[in-house]
Amino acid sequence: MKMLNKQSCEISILMPCLNEESTVGICIEEAKEFLRRQNQTNHTNKITGEILVVDNGSTDHSARVAALHGARVIHENRRGYGRALRTGIAHCKGRIIIYGDCDTTYDFNHLEPMYLPLARGSCDVMIGDRFAGGIEKGAMPLLHRWGVPFLSLCGRLRWKIPARDFHCGIRGLTRDAAMQMELKTTGMEFATEFIAEAVRKHLHIGQVPIPLRRCTQKRSSKLRTFKDGARHMRYILKNLPDGIWHL
Fold first, then answer.
1. Tens digits of residue pLDDT in 206-231
2. In sequence order, what are the beta bridge partners of 52?
3. What is the pLDDT at residue 246?
4. What are the sequence ranges of the domains in the chain?
5. Alpha carbon 149 to chain centroid distance?
6. How far apart are CA 111 and CA 63, in angstroms?
7. Predicted confidence (pLDDT) per residue in 191-203, tens digit
8. Quick count: other Cβ atoms within 10 Å of Cβ 112?
């Protein structure tokens, strides 16, 4: 992936955003607290960081709220989760990139388990596991509790990686890994492509338990259960080995 900005800080915290004016500010403040705490506990090596919000064509005041809370805001008006993240990653300035949904379901205040393995060089890519981290009551629809494990199983079998949660919305990667990965998808299937591409490039993938919180703010879900699930499955089937249909 081509990086448009030169590296100028240690970490970029990236948030794709579509009509999240009630939650994006909360997530930015959590991310700011994480950065403040890192510098309070590490006096010798100060961590420089940025919070980047990619507004994906919001029709509310998400971009304005994000800017008021101190985030750098860029716009990607072509809709799509994967498109927003690809644009965001390309504009990040950090040596390490952590991205996550800005709907308060993920805790940006406690990113250490995802950040430290990347910072220490023990992993190139980090993915979260909500099933190991705990899912708050009401945080995940019942259908997703069945669908996500099934699609993850399909992904594990296809790419031979022990990833339990192919669709966790918070992940991390190094800048070097981002430059190696050839990410092309535009929709929710980006989550599957991200793992598949890391495997193809022989990157070291780490996993960490991630709690999933229930969003307490009034908002409408962006997930389309059957359509998005079909996109993931179509990506997996499209990328099966050439000879498998002849078995």
1. 999 999 999 877 666 555 655 666 77
2. 14, 72
3. 36
4. 9-239
5. 18
6. 23
7. 999 999 999 999 9
8. 14
